[in-house]
Write a structure and sequence with these properties.
about 300 residues, mainly alpha, disordered C terminus
């Protein structure tokens, strides 16, 4: 069995183009659930928003870096963990927050703001933490990455679809109401389908190497949810808000990570396996946490804080 850093997963160019289109459609669906009022709402929740943004773009990458140093996985696995941590949240976080009885308005607003911030911050974060790690830094030197091209790629599949979707929700509200649910469901199903296709097309590699990454992904994802909750608690947020921040930090857009891995890293084995496993485990863990919280509804005092 080849070392995981030496394998390259297969994903043909046509499938990659389709995956980019699906991810862009997913971002369009997120924007359809966003209103200009969501951005205005941010001004009324500065502490909650600051806690969530800091947890996602500062604390989680730092925690991930420390975890890769502690576990000392293969460089490509560590690089995959860092990339996933730098990805923005997906709109699944909004669904899970609702299921858990958390602050959906905060979740939706944070998803929107985080995805816009990620256009610029994600490449910088990844370059910083990936370059700081001694093992992944040497691996990055062997991969020719044009940072400008990566930013433009992220703008194309996150920024442009989000702006178009936001414009649609603002100026075409009736149409938006008709299409937003089907668009959200269809894009999510298609994304899962493409992740399944990527796994199926490289099944032998996933069977060979999943054992190397599964434990790391489980620990990493658990720490991501815990990071969100801890940051929200440390800033004095109510339980209602803590649940939202937990899902915003715990749910990462692994589909975007997979697109970048195949587009810029040639399907580098450890990175692709991490993103593929994360894409499934993240949903399983999120559903489990949401179900657990759903059985623990907010107390009257917390409900009062919610409506304040």
């Amino acid at each position: 069995m080849l070392p995981v850093d030496e394998i390259r997963l297969n994903f043909n160019p046509a499938s990659l183009i389709a995956l980019n289109a699906v991810l862009a459609f997913l971002m369009f669906g997120i924007a359809l659930d966003t209103r200009v009022a969501d951005f205005k709402r941010v001004a009324r929740m500065p502490v909650a928003m600051a806690a969530g943004i800091a947890a996602q773009f500062i604390v989680l990458p730092a925690v991930t870096f420390a975890l890769t140093r502690l576990l000392n996985p293969a460089p490509s696995i560590a690089l995959g963990m860092i990339l996933v941590a730098c990805c923005p949240p997906g709109n699944v976080s909004n669904i899970l927050t609702h299921r858990a009885g958390g602050n959906v308005a905060l979740s939706v607003s944070m998803t929107a703001i985080s995805n816009l911030i990620a256009i610029v911050v994600m490449p910088l974060n990844f370059a910083f933490w990936g370059g700081l790690h001694p093992d992944t830094a040497s691996l990055l030197k062997t991969i020719a990455i044009d940072p400008v091209e990566m930013v433009l790629h992220i703008v194309a599949i996150i920024g442009a679809p989000f702006v178009i979707g936001l414009a649609c929700s603002h100026w075409l509200p009736a149409l938006t109401e008709r299409i937003k649910k089907p668009a959200r469901v269809l894009s999510f199903v298609c994304l899962i389908g493409f992740i399944l296709a990527a796994v199926a097309g490289n099944w032998r590699y996933f069977l060979d190497y999943v054992g190397l990454v599964l434990l790391a992904v489980v620990i990493h994802d658990t720490l991501a949810f815990a990071t969100g909750y801890a940051c929200a608690t440390a800033t004095g947020l109510a339980e209602y808000d803590r649940r939202a921040v937990s899902f915003e930090v715990g749910v990462r857009n692994a589909g975007l990570g997979l697109v970048l891995i195949f587009s810029f890293f040639g399907g580098l084995g450890g990175m692709a396996v991490v993103a593929g496993v994360w894409g499934f485990w993240d949903i399983i863990a999120g559903l489990g946490l949401a179900a657990w919280w759903a059985r623990r509804p907010l107390t009257p005092s917390k409900a009062a804080a919610r409506s304040a």
